[in-house]
Specification:
Shape: elongated
Distance between the termini: 62 Å
Number of helices: 7
CATH topology of the largest domain: Rossmann fold
Order of helices and strands: EEEEEHEHEHEHEEEEHEHH
Strand content: 25-35%
Radius of gyration: 23 Å
Number of domains: 2
Number of strands: 13
CATH class of the largest domain: Alpha Beta
Helix content: 25-40%
Largest sheet: 9 strands, mixed
Length: 269
């Protein structure tokens, strides 16, 4: 943009995750490999906020022309999410081979996504969800913007093009603020932005016939394991069990003394 004659190009970074609506009782941790599991297996879906990012990109393309490219990092199974994104309005899909970032290293994920976006070239707007709905950390958008050396605005509840730039509404603790942003830039969108469309059967069938590009670490110039790797040492289920012991004494003073003794025995004071 910024006066450039070429059409608007929007890239959307998405993540495929286990369905957040899967029964909590089906979840467990396989401690042998430090990975979460579900029994029966949870369905794989596009991360909640990422679906809103796809919809935002599709609407911008419909209003202003151009193209939407969706990217995701992971194994071949991630192509399920990519094809869903194609059915929801994306024009092209790219899968970054999972070897580019392993062991939950979100810095490596951001580095691989940045390399893919540079390979695409000429991207005006990068959209992603404000946070992933599985780990709920929100690390990648900020690191990705840093790798790209571009401005970032999040969480975003409204986007419009104006005077060859963007005007967005960013959610704050007590409302929202209006921000003007030049392109290229990165926006982390929230669910207040829109309601994702339900793809038609024809769109779903067309998406199955579209190719999904696969880019390896070598093609992106990324060396696996060298992006200051973060390694997951131990994953465990949070113990939410609770126990309550009623402390009673003949007087309030007696109750206080008994409570102090119990706290001392438990090494809490």
């Amino acid at each position: 943009m910024n006066g450039a004659p070429r059409p608007l190009r929007i890239a959307v970074c998405i993540k495929q995750i286990p369905d957040p609506q899967a029964p909590a009782g089906s979840f467990y941790v396989d401690e042998a490999v430090n990975e979460p599991r579900w029994s029966p297996p949870a369905a794989q879906v596009i991360s909640t906020f990422d679906a809103h990012a796809i919809e935002a990109a599709a609407r911008l393309r419909e209003e202003h022309g151009g193209e939407v490219i969706v990217l995701s990092l992971g194994p071949p199974g991630v192509e399920v999410a990519l094809r869903r994104a194609l059915a929801a309005g994306a024009d092209e899909a790219v899968r970054i081979d999972e070897a580019a970032a392993r062991d939950g290293d979100r810095l490596a994920v951001a580095a691989a996504l940045a390399a893919a976006l540079r390979k695409l070239g000429g991207v005006d707007i990068v959209l992603c969800g404000r946070i992933a709905a599985d780990w709920d950390m929100g690390h990648v958008p900020g690191m990705l913007a840093e790798f790209l050396d571009t401005a970032i605005v999040l969480p975003v509840k409204a986007i419009r093009l104006e005077n060859n730039g963007l005007v967005v509404e960013r959610i704050t603790d007590d409302g929202y603020e209006v921000v003007a942003a030049e392109t290229p830039c990165l926006l982390g969108v929230s669910n207040e932005l829109n309601e994702p469309r339900y793809p038609t059967m024809r769109a779903v069938l067309d998406a199955q016939r579209k190719p999904v590009s696969v880019w390896t670490p070598a093609e992106l110039g990324v060396e696996p394991g060298t992006a200051r790797p973060v390694r997951l040492q131990r994953l465990s289920v949070l113990d939410l069990s609770r126990a309550c012991e009623l402390v009673e004494g003949a007087t309030p003073e007696d109750s206080g003394s008994l409570l102090a003794e119990l706290l001392h025995e438990e090494a809490l004071v």
